[in-house]
Amino acid sequence: MTRDRLYLYDTTLRDGAQTRGVDFSLEDKILVARLLDDLGVDYIEGGYPGANPMDDAFFAAPRTQRATFSAFGMTKRAGVSVSNDPGIATLLSNAATAVCYVAKAWDYHVDVALKTTLEENLEGIRLSVEAAVAAGKEAMVDCEHFFDGWKANRDYALACARTAHAAGARWVVLCDTNGGTLPDEIERIVADVATVVPGDRLGIHAHDDTGQAVANSLAAVRAGVRQIQGTLNGIGERCGNANLTTLIPTLALKPGYADRFETGIDAVALAGLTATSRAFDEILNRAPDAHAPYVGASAFATKAGIHASAILKDPKTYEHVTPESVGNRRRVLVSDQAGKSNLVAELARLGIAVDKADPKLDTLLARVKEREARGFAYEAADASFELLARRTLSSVPDYFDVTSYRVMVERRFNAIGDLVTVSEAVVKVSIDGEVRMSVAEGNGPINALDQALRKDIGKYQAEIESLVLVDYKVRILDGGTGAVTRVLIESLDTRTNRRWMTIGVSENIVDASFQALIDSITYKLVKNGAAGR
Ligand SMILES: CC(=O)SCCNC(=O)CCNC(=O)[C@H](O)C(C)(C)COP(=O)(O)OP(=O)(O)OC[C@H]1O[C@@H](n2cnc3c(N)ncnc32)[C@H](O)[C@@H]1OP(=O)(O)O
Ligand SMILES: CC(=O)C(=O)O
Q1: EC top class, in one word (predicted)?
Q2: Mean pLDDT rounded to a whole number for the chain
């Protein structure tokens, strides 16, 4: 059966630039365009030339890309001719081969926002599209507020769509600008529009204000549209746009879409989707959404013991698609919700083989649950879990004992009379019967303790030279009988680039930090294969 082609139009660099908190640099725009081109979208809307110097620079920058490059801007202003409208001149004189006009399609907006007549707006759409076609551009029209407009004045909304199409627009895009339309309405209204403009000339641009931009886009596809606009990770004005990282796998993998439609995204690009999504977050300098469908770190993460047990028998029991198809991975988490199956899976990932019937596994599970009840959270602390597991199932070499530590924080006047806060730590470590004492200052008590701990661990010192702490997180938990502190530390081995997380829990923040620091050093020595005393 032949499949209909669906065209993906990316507006990350235009509608995405309207996201609160997003501020692309020129370099960012170039990198994002490259990501999108590698992904295989059909159109990349680069921005709004003439709106700001950044977009002007991006449109002027040299480019080689497969996707059609599109410039966004409004139809001609009321009261001026196309040839006298500087906005149109800018839109038609840049390197983009396509132009996407935003046009009013709601009579109320024409009246209130444009303050012009319905006829002049239609004429503006017609003349603007004709000018783009005459300039050799692929023209399209984003019919702003189309669905609200259709509900208010169906004939006028349809006249806008019909005018754009008749003037030569390749795509007439129906926009749910305020994002309040629901999927059943979208499907019904698109079906109506398809009676005056063929579906293979229609597109959908959905906003996520009811959390249904993807559902609305799919509804529009069912009703006939063949172009979908969206953004990477769903960024965009207010609540965002239809999320392409959700739409793309849905179209590629789900029955009813995968068998009826094809897009420009091949299986290889699909398998790179998680990496694309993360790379985009990296450019935005923001943490990836762990719960994002398909590409989030939790999308294939299983915490519940009953789920884990079935997943180990056959992953299909709890996965709607394979994680590999979108470049994600399965995670079976260890926590107080776990059963022995979770432990077996996580231990296998850590390279530790253990039989589910091994009674030591019951002991390990009981320890995990008892410690989680006290505030530990092993799903976030892989290294501390590995140490606990190794200690329970076999053993961890005995390297050194910290026989005592002391941490002081003092606020005092320094030699030149400035008031300063000084942190100092003293640590005594016993190795092979020899006690070593180290003193260190730090920019805070935990930093001082860390410095002192790692200053002299005798014969193991060289083994930890490449160990650095890269993150430190504290959370105060209500332990029932009083507050307890949970500390999570992320460590990095600069030699291997390996990272790991360790955890400590105590009523005392310094003690919780101490536990996490000791686990980090011990883990590093275990991974080095260091022999114990
Ligand atoms: C639904 C969307 O997301 S559309 C995308 C919106 N994106 C942006 O607005 C980002 C970039 N915008 C800008 O930098 C500026 O708004 C500019 C450069 C485009 C225009 O700036 P200004 O000239 O100062 O106008 P301003 O933004 O205040 O108002 C927009 C004007 O365009 C008119 N206009 C709006 N849409 C249209 C349209 N489709 N066709 C014709 N005119 C339009 C408005 O009526 C208003 O006219 P007025 O100045 O006579 O009141
Ligand atoms: C064009 C556009 O971004 C909108 O109508 O939402």
Answers
A1: transferase
A2: 96
Question: Domain 400-456 has what CATH class?
Answer: alpha beta
Q: Which two tokens stand for residue 480?
A: 């029932």
What's the pLDDT tens digit per position in 218-262?
A: 999 999 999 999 999 999 999 999 999 999 999 999 999 999 999
The protein residue with its alpha carbon nearest to ligand 1, atom 42, reads: 77
Task: Tell how far CA 490 is from the center of its chain.
Answer: 21
CA dist 74 and 104 (Å) reads: 9
Start and end residues for every CATH 3.30.160 domain found in the chain: 400-456
Please give the CATH topology (third level) of the domain spanning 4-284.
TIM Barrel (3.20.20)
Is residue 262 within a helix (H) or strand (E), and if so which, with residue range?
strand 261-262
Q: Is 148 in the pocket of ligand 2 (CB under 6 A)?
A: no
Residues 61 and 46: their CA atoms lie apart, in Å, by: 11
Do the strands 467-478 and 483-493 form a parallel or antiparallel pair, or are they unpaired?
Answer: antiparallel
Distance CA 62, CA 303 (A): 48
**Do 128 and 92 form a contact (C-beta atoms < 8 A)?**
no
Kindly state if the Cβ of 15 falls inside 6 Å of ligand 2.
yes
Which segments of the chain belong to CATH 3.20.20.70? Answer: 4-284
DSSP 8-state symbol, 324: G
pTM of the entire structure? Answer: 0.89
Ligand 1 pocket, residues with Cβ under 6 angstroms = 15, 18, 48, 51-52, 74-75, 77, 102-104, 113-114, 124, 144, 177, 237
Please choose, from the candidates 70, 522, 6, the residue with its C-alpha nearest in 3D space to the C-alpha of residue 263. 6
Whole-number Å distance, alpha carbon 398 to ligand 1 midpoint, is 70
Q: Looking at the CA of 120, name the nearest ligand.
A: 1
Distance from CA of residue 512 to its chain's centroid?
31
In this structure, what DSSP letter does residue 137 have? P
The CA 62 to ligand 2 mean position distance, Å, reads: 27
pLDDT in tens, 136-150: 999 999 999 999 999
Rounded distance from Cα 243 to ligand 2 centre (Å)? 15
Q: How large is the ipTM?
A: 0.96
